[in-house]
Amino acid sequence: MTVTIAIETPLQDDVRGLVEELNAHLLPLSPLEFQFKMTVEQMAGADTTVFVARNAVGEAVGCGALKAISATEGEVKRMYTRPSVRGQRVGSALLAAITELAGSKGISHLLLETGTGPGMSEAHRLYTNAGFSVRGPFLDYPDSEWSAFFEKHIGQPAVA
Predict the structure, then answer these.
(1) Measuring CA to CA, which residue among 101, 26, 30, 23 is closest to residue 68?
(2) Separation of alpha carbons 160 and 158, rounded Å
(3) For a FRET experiment, which of 18, 57, 155, 156 has its CA 20 to 30 Å from that of 71?
(4) Block means of pLDDT (10 residues each) for the chain, length 160 residues?
């Protein structure tokens, strides 16, 4: 499948739809107090860059975001691909775009929190295949059986 990945505003109906699908997918997997969601309005903040994957006809089929934590740390947020495109490397392409942007901004340490419930093994595999390793909680995330934490140290882009 051919997809294009681009930075877009989350304040579009089709991107809102993706985020609603993600929220619905996550709802039964863990207690609400262990679901750390960003709304599309929060995703539109100056500290967050949203990537949207679109198929050949322009349909939004996936999303992911980079939230700046500090000058050198960023967090991967709101990763989601529609079930119809899973296994077609859309998530990998989104994660690569996020990582590339992070490096270009001088971010050398990427962090992420994801669930541990049924069906999350594919997400864990995506992150480990992209070079992320398991770590403990960060920021104000609680240490719980419902969360898995990952990190990746990325190199700085070459200076021309």
Answers:
(1) 101
(2) 6
(3) 18
(4) 93 96 85 86 97 96 97 96 92 96 96 89 94 95 94 70
